Amino acid sequence: MAGAPDESGPGSAAGEQLQQQHVACQVFPERLAQGNPQQGFLSSFFTNNQKCQLMLLKTLQTNPYVKLLLDAMKHSGCAVNKERHFSCEDCDGNVSGGFDASTSQIVLCQNNIGSQAHMNRVVTHELIHAFDHCRAHVHWFTDVRHLACSEVRAANLSGDCSLVNEIFRLHFGLKQHHQTCVRDRAILSILAVRNISKEVAQKAVDEVFESCFNDHEPFGRIPHNKTYARYAHRDFQNRDRYYSNI
Protein backbone atom coordinates (compact mmCIF):
# COMPACT_ATOMS: atom_id res chain seq x y z
CA MET A 1 0.00 0.00 0.00
CA ALA A 2 1.19 3.44 0.60
CA GLY A 3 3.84 4.66 2.96
CA ALA A 4 2.83 6.77 5.89
CA PRO A 5 3.34 10.52 5.54
CA ASP A 6 2.81 11.30 9.19
CA GLU A 7 6.24 12.22 10.41
CA SER A 8 7.91 13.90 7.47
CA GLY A 9 7.02 16.76 5.19
CA PRO A 10 6.61 16.66 1.42
CA GLY A 11 9.73 15.99 -0.58
CA SER A 12 11.38 13.59 -2.96
CA ALA A 13 12.58 11.26 -0.20
CA ALA A 14 9.11 10.94 1.30
CA GLY A 15 7.65 10.48 -2.18
CA GLU A 16 10.12 7.74 -3.04
CA GLN A 17 9.45 5.92 0.22
CA LEU A 18 5.72 6.11 -0.42
CA GLN A 19 6.21 4.70 -3.92
CA GLN A 20 8.37 1.81 -2.67
CA GLN A 21 6.07 0.86 0.15
CA HIS A 22 3.08 0.76 -2.21
CA VAL A 23 4.15 -2.59 -3.63
CA ALA A 24 3.00 -3.90 -0.43
CA CYS A 25 -0.65 -4.68 -0.62
CA GLN A 26 -1.00 -7.61 -2.89
CA VAL A 27 -2.32 -11.08 -3.27
CA PHE A 28 0.56 -13.35 -2.21
CA PRO A 29 1.59 -16.09 -4.66
CA GLU A 30 4.88 -16.77 -2.85
CA ARG A 31 3.28 -17.59 0.50
CA LEU A 32 0.96 -20.07 -1.22
CA ALA A 33 3.95 -22.30 -1.92
CA GLN A 34 5.61 -21.76 1.44
CA GLY A 35 2.55 -22.44 3.54
CA ASN A 36 1.40 -20.41 6.50
CA PRO A 37 4.27 -19.70 8.91
CA GLN A 38 3.20 -20.20 12.50
CA GLN A 39 4.02 -17.58 15.10
CA GLY A 40 5.92 -19.12 18.02
CA PHE A 41 5.24 -18.34 21.67
CA LEU A 42 8.30 -16.09 21.98
CA SER A 43 7.55 -14.13 18.82
CA SER A 44 5.14 -11.88 20.70
CA PHE A 45 8.08 -10.55 22.70
CA PHE A 46 9.98 -9.33 19.67
CA THR A 47 9.65 -5.60 19.12
CA ASN A 48 8.38 -5.71 15.52
CA ASN A 49 5.76 -8.33 16.25
CA GLN A 50 4.51 -6.61 19.38
CA LYS A 51 4.33 -3.26 17.60
CA CYS A 52 2.49 -4.83 14.69
CA GLN A 53 -0.05 -6.49 16.97
CA LEU A 54 -0.73 -3.27 18.87
CA MET A 55 -1.12 -1.18 15.72
CA LEU A 56 -3.41 -3.82 14.20
CA LEU A 57 -5.61 -3.81 17.30
CA LYS A 58 -5.92 -0.02 17.19
CA THR A 59 -6.77 -0.12 13.48
CA LEU A 60 -9.51 -2.72 14.00
CA GLN A 61 -11.01 -0.78 16.89
CA THR A 62 -10.84 2.79 15.60
CA ASN A 63 -10.40 3.13 11.83
CA PRO A 64 -13.73 3.93 10.10
CA TYR A 65 -12.72 2.31 6.79
CA VAL A 66 -11.84 -0.91 8.57
CA LYS A 67 -14.87 -0.90 10.86
CA LEU A 68 -17.17 -0.65 7.84
CA LEU A 69 -15.35 -3.45 6.02
CA LEU A 70 -15.51 -5.70 9.09
CA ASP A 71 -19.27 -5.13 9.35
CA ALA A 72 -19.68 -5.80 5.63
CA MET A 73 -17.67 -9.02 5.86
CA LYS A 74 -19.81 -10.21 8.76
CA HIS A 75 -22.98 -9.26 6.90
CA SER A 76 -21.77 -11.31 3.91
CA GLY A 77 -21.17 -14.39 6.04
CA CYS A 78 -17.39 -13.96 6.31
CA ALA A 79 -16.88 -12.70 9.85
CA VAL A 80 -13.27 -11.71 10.50
CA ASN A 81 -11.38 -12.94 13.55
CA LYS A 82 -8.20 -11.10 14.52
CA GLU A 83 -6.31 -14.20 15.60
CA ARG A 84 -7.41 -16.35 12.66
CA HIS A 85 -7.39 -13.91 9.74
CA PHE A 86 -4.37 -11.67 10.41
CA SER A 87 -0.72 -12.64 10.69
CA CYS A 88 2.19 -10.32 11.51
CA GLU A 89 5.28 -11.67 9.76
CA ASP A 90 8.63 -10.53 8.39
CA CYS A 91 8.55 -10.07 4.62
CA ASP A 92 11.14 -9.69 1.89
CA GLY A 93 11.78 -6.45 0.06
CA ASN A 94 9.47 -3.46 0.41
CA VAL A 95 6.27 -5.46 0.73
CA SER A 96 3.92 -4.17 3.44
CA GLY A 97 1.20 -6.79 3.33
CA GLY A 98 -0.90 -9.11 1.25
CA PHE A 99 -4.01 -11.25 1.06
CA ASP A 100 -3.34 -14.99 1.04
CA ALA A 101 -6.33 -16.42 -0.81
CA SER A 102 -5.34 -20.01 0.01
CA THR A 103 -5.93 -19.42 3.74
CA SER A 104 -8.20 -16.35 3.60
CA GLN A 105 -5.60 -14.60 5.72
CA ILE A 106 -4.16 -11.09 5.63
CA VAL A 107 -0.39 -10.93 6.02
CA LEU A 108 1.01 -7.78 7.67
CA CYS A 109 4.72 -7.23 7.13
CA GLN A 110 5.85 -6.25 10.61
CA ASN A 111 9.34 -5.28 9.43
CA ASN A 112 8.02 -2.80 6.86
CA ILE A 113 4.95 -1.17 8.44
CA GLY A 114 6.36 1.82 10.25
CA SER A 115 3.41 3.84 11.53
CA GLN A 116 -0.24 3.66 12.53
CA ALA A 117 -1.33 5.48 9.37
CA HIS A 118 0.56 2.97 7.24
CA MET A 119 -1.06 0.09 9.13
CA ASN A 120 -4.50 1.66 8.58
CA ARG A 121 -4.01 1.80 4.83
CA VAL A 122 -2.55 -1.70 4.51
CA VAL A 123 -5.36 -3.31 6.52
CA THR A 124 -8.01 -1.37 4.58
CA HIS A 125 -6.50 -2.31 1.23
CA GLU A 126 -6.24 -5.99 2.11
CA LEU A 127 -9.72 -6.15 3.63
CA ILE A 128 -11.10 -4.93 0.30
CA HIS A 129 -9.39 -7.94 -1.34
CA ALA A 130 -10.84 -10.15 1.39
CA PHE A 131 -14.31 -8.68 0.86
CA ASP A 132 -14.06 -9.35 -2.88
CA HIS A 133 -12.90 -12.90 -2.14
CA CYS A 134 -15.93 -13.37 0.13
CA ARG A 135 -18.60 -12.03 -2.19
CA ALA A 136 -17.41 -13.33 -5.57
CA HIS A 137 -15.60 -16.25 -7.17
CA VAL A 138 -12.31 -14.44 -7.75
CA HIS A 139 -9.74 -16.34 -9.80
CA TRP A 140 -6.71 -14.58 -8.35
CA PHE A 141 -4.07 -16.63 -10.11
CA THR A 142 -5.73 -17.68 -13.37
CA ASP A 143 -7.48 -14.52 -14.59
CA VAL A 144 -5.48 -11.30 -14.42
CA ARG A 145 -8.65 -9.28 -15.01
CA HIS A 146 -10.07 -10.50 -11.69
CA LEU A 147 -6.91 -9.37 -9.92
CA ALA A 148 -7.00 -6.07 -11.85
CA CYS A 149 -10.58 -5.42 -10.76
CA SER A 150 -9.83 -5.98 -7.09
CA GLU A 151 -6.70 -3.82 -7.30
CA VAL A 152 -8.69 -1.00 -8.93
CA ARG A 153 -11.27 -1.22 -6.15
CA ALA A 154 -8.61 -1.33 -3.43
CA ALA A 155 -6.77 1.70 -4.78
CA ASN A 156 -10.04 3.57 -5.25
CA LEU A 157 -11.66 2.85 -1.88
CA SER A 158 -8.78 2.47 0.60
CA GLY A 159 -7.65 6.09 0.69
CA ASP A 160 -4.40 5.24 -1.08
CA CYS A 161 -5.17 7.88 -3.71
CA SER A 162 -6.26 10.54 -1.26
CA LEU A 163 -5.13 14.10 -1.90
CA VAL A 164 -2.77 14.00 1.10
CA ASN A 165 -1.03 10.83 -0.08
CA GLU A 166 -0.68 12.15 -3.60
CA ILE A 167 0.78 15.45 -2.41
CA PHE A 168 3.44 13.52 -0.50
CA ARG A 169 4.19 11.61 -3.69
CA LEU A 170 4.48 15.01 -5.43
CA HIS A 171 1.60 14.01 -7.72
CA PHE A 172 -1.19 16.56 -7.91
CA GLY A 173 -2.93 19.13 -10.06
CA LEU A 174 -3.94 16.92 -12.99
CA LYS A 175 -7.43 16.70 -14.42
CA GLN A 176 -9.19 13.53 -13.23
CA HIS A 177 -6.23 12.91 -11.00
CA HIS A 178 -7.97 10.41 -8.74
CA GLN A 179 -8.77 8.14 -11.68
CA THR A 180 -5.18 8.41 -12.92
CA CYS A 181 -3.82 7.50 -9.49
CA VAL A 182 -6.15 4.50 -9.17
CA ARG A 183 -5.16 3.21 -12.59
CA ASP A 184 -1.43 3.63 -11.91
CA ARG A 185 -1.66 2.00 -8.47
CA ALA A 186 -3.58 -0.97 -9.82
CA ILE A 187 -0.99 -1.53 -12.55
CA LEU A 188 1.89 -1.31 -10.04
CA SER A 189 0.14 -3.80 -7.78
CA ILE A 190 -0.35 -6.31 -10.58
CA LEU A 191 3.27 -6.02 -11.73
CA ALA A 192 4.45 -6.58 -8.16
CA VAL A 193 2.88 -10.05 -8.00
CA ARG A 194 2.62 -11.24 -11.59
CA ASN A 195 5.42 -12.04 -14.01
CA ILE A 196 3.78 -10.22 -16.91
CA SER A 197 4.64 -7.20 -19.01
CA LYS A 198 3.45 -3.70 -18.19
CA GLU A 199 1.43 -3.73 -21.41
CA VAL A 200 -0.50 -6.84 -20.33
CA ALA A 201 -1.17 -5.33 -16.92
CA GLN A 202 -2.35 -2.06 -18.47
CA LYS A 203 -4.64 -3.94 -20.84
CA ALA A 204 -6.21 -5.88 -17.97
CA VAL A 205 -6.81 -2.68 -15.98
CA ASP A 206 -8.24 -0.90 -19.02
CA GLU A 207 -10.67 -3.74 -19.69
CA VAL A 208 -12.17 -3.67 -16.20
CA PHE A 209 -11.58 -0.08 -15.13
CA GLU A 210 -14.97 1.51 -15.78
CA SER A 211 -17.06 -1.16 -14.06
CA CYS A 212 -14.67 -1.78 -11.18
CA PHE A 213 -13.93 1.90 -10.53
CA ASN A 214 -17.68 2.49 -10.23
CA ASP A 215 -18.19 -0.48 -7.90
CA HIS A 216 -18.08 1.21 -4.49
CA GLU A 217 -19.32 -1.67 -2.36
CA PRO A 218 -19.51 -1.84 0.56
CA PHE A 219 -18.91 1.90 1.00
CA GLY A 220 -21.62 3.10 -1.37
CA ARG A 221 -19.36 6.02 -2.35
CA ILE A 222 -15.67 6.81 -2.70
CA PRO A 223 -14.50 7.53 0.88
CA HIS A 224 -11.94 10.24 0.16
CA ASN A 225 -11.11 10.70 3.85
CA LYS A 226 -12.08 9.43 7.31
CA THR A 227 -15.10 11.74 7.49
CA TYR A 228 -16.51 10.24 4.29
CA ALA A 229 -15.74 6.77 5.66
CA ARG A 230 -17.66 7.51 8.87
CA TYR A 231 -20.66 8.69 6.85
CA ALA A 232 -20.42 5.57 4.70
CA HIS A 233 -20.29 3.37 7.79
CA ARG A 234 -23.34 5.09 9.26
CA ASP A 235 -25.24 4.63 5.99
CA PHE A 236 -24.22 0.97 5.81
CA GLN A 237 -25.47 0.35 9.34
CA ASN A 238 -28.76 2.11 8.59
CA ARG A 239 -29.16 0.16 5.35
CA ASP A 240 -28.50 -3.07 7.22
CA ARG A 241 -31.13 -2.20 9.82
CA TYR A 242 -33.63 -1.29 7.10
CA TYR A 243 -33.29 -4.61 5.29
CA SER A 244 -33.37 -6.58 8.52
CA ASN A 245 -36.79 -5.04 9.27
CA ILE A 246 -38.36 -5.86 5.91
UniProtKB/TrEMBL annotation:
One of its GO terms (biological process) is mitochondrial protein processing. One of its GO terms (cellular component) is mitochondrion. Its EC number is 3.4.24.-. It comes from the Eukaryota. InterPro entries: Peptidase_M76_ATP23. The keyword Metal-binding applies. One of its GO terms (molecular function) is metalloendopeptidase activity. Keywords: Hydrolase, Metal-binding, Metalloprotease, Protease. Belongs to the peptidase M76 family. This is Mitochondrial inner membrane protease ATP23. It comes from Panthera pardus.
